[in-house]
Amino acid sequence: MNGLRHLLIAAISGITMVALVSCGDDDPTAPPTPLEAPTSPRSFRASSSSLTKITLTWKDASGDEEGFEIEESVVNDGHFNPGATVPANGESLTLSDRAPETLYHYRIRTFNDAGYSPYAGPVSIETRSAGAPQTPVDLKTDYVGRSGIEFSWRDARRLAEGFLVERRDEPGGDWEVLGGISDGEASCIVDGLQPDHTYSFRVRAYNGSGLSDYAAEIMVTIPAWHSPLEIEDFNSIGHAVCRSADGGYVVTGEILGDDELFVAATDAEGTQQWARVYEGHGKGRGYDILPVPGGGYLVVGTSDAGSQIYSRVEMWTLLIGESGERLWESFTPGEGAAACLAHDEGFLVCGNDSISTERGIRVEKISPTGDIVWSRSFGDPEKYETAYDIAKVPSGGYIVAAVKASWFGRSWGDLWLLRLDESGEPLWSRTVAGPGDDQGTSIVVDSDGGFVLAGHTGGNAGELLILKTDAAGGELWRRTYRRASFNMANDIRRIPDGGFLVAGFQYDFDGRGTDFWVIRTDPDGQALWHRVYGGGNWDSGNGLLLQDDERYVVVGETSSYPPSGRNAWLVAGDF
Asked: Nearest CA to 392 among 360, 429, 367, 363?
């Protein structure tokens, strides 16, 4: 019954209720449901991407709008001028030709035939400043393959329309413009670079108002070859390297997190051949390694069998075969640091005597079969000493490089040289006090019988130090070098022309990261050249090896070269 309506009347508790029940189709003449005003937009935002452009964005919260109305104000006195409209379902608007260095205010509402929603906003945004762009910051380089680098930077205030990148070969050369980089990009890849060659890069920004100043140049050396080692999923540090019997290299260090000692072998181009992890009495770290006459390698490090309640740290000396098989090992209380061959047979090992508030240093002679021939402890009860290196003196006996500090736990203070005879008895002891705190991490015997140390001077913001003494430990000269906020030498070797090669790192507090740093000097410690390896993360050179063919190999760690993580890293170059 089309259009039939029944009237139902019911009386409940004295109240009359009336309901209309429809049977069949509605009456086509009935008025439509009234249209309601739309809902306000949500998440209204404003941003400026250039001197004259402003971008507005929002979320459409209504399903029946005809569009959006945007209003603009410059004075922010509550009065807005009509601006632009955006069709239904729109969620952004870019406004051009705004004035630079001007604060704008915006509000938005939705509309349809029933009316307007309440306003969303206001939001405020200032257009960028006019004028030349600022100098790029946060310059970084990372290796791409074995012959390229990625050079990157950051636009300080996003005023640039583009960037000009320049390169020069070797310090003091002419700068070559590589090309322009458009706005929105802040990096470039430079490939086809020569192995064992040093390049410098710089960049400046430009826009319609002019050019920025050049950012400070960044120097990077392309290694003869370089290779990260795959130790426990690429999470390791290499501390020392020696030559293997087949012409390759053997590295020792530590696995991060697990604190385990490892040894890895590579071929002559750094390709890993094998790796082994060794358990001591607990956690372990390998700090020095040297080839043994007759075959195999001696590893010196530390084993920590302590717990959260107490510490039991031991000097760990380990002899392994050509393929890494364990032959014998020795544990004595303390920390292992370095080793050298004895004058007759066996080995000399140095380290710290104990982990206590009266720590001194210990030197041990160990036989070829692992027996302790003699053990000597040295120290000042009012000082805290740390041993870093030991070397065999050609005229007889040994020299130990250590540090005397004024309080427990310090890694620098005054350099301490300890001269021993072949039985471990002291011949003399000399403290070399500089103008500030010093640290000597490595020592070599010079051709005139004196000693040359490398390390650090100046405390937390100091310089790389190279220091020469006479045969009695008296200081003859010292050289300091600074290329970053913190500068450190970790190893030194004497080269055939009488000069020295030093490996270490430079660290910038401004966030650029840490780089391998290799310096070649003349016999007086004056720098002949510097080479910097690494990228924008943590890269450090720890151990140095010289070869007869005038090639050097540095082992350390990298966080800048793929794969990700902190990896033991071998870098090779020619001197």
From this structure: 363
Which pLDDT belongs to residue 11? 31
Round to whole Å and give the CA distance between 2 and 51: 68
CB-based burial label for 6 (10 Å; 0-12, 13-18, 19+)? exposed
Using an 8 Å Cβ cutoff, are 542 and 556 in contact? yes
Are 273 and 267 in contact, with CB atoms under 8 Å apart? Answer: yes
CA angle 544, 549, 551 (to 5 degrees): 35
Strand bridging mode 384-392 / 398-405: antiparallel
| Gap between the Cα atoms of 302 and 331, Å rounded | 9
Nearest partner of 484 among 457, 468, 461, 466, judged by Cα: 461
| 363 close to 424: Cβ distance less than 8 angstroms | yes
Residues in the chain: 575
Give the Cα separation of 262 and 271 in Å (integer). Answer: 16
- CA angle 220–221–223, rounded 5-degree value: 145
SS3 487: strand
How far does Cα 371 stand from its chain's mean position?
42
Per-chain mean pLDDT for the chain: 86
Closest CA to 224 of 450, 429, 531: 531
pLDDT above 70 for 309:
no
CA angle 484/490/493 to nearest 5° reads 115
Flag whether the pTM goes above 0.70: yes
Q: Comparing 20-24, 411-415, 444-448, which segment has the lowest mean pLDDT?
A: 20-24
Please compute the mean of the pLDDT values over residues 232-244 and round it to a whole number: 90
pLDDT digits (tens, 9 = 90+) for 347-359: 999 999 865 545 7
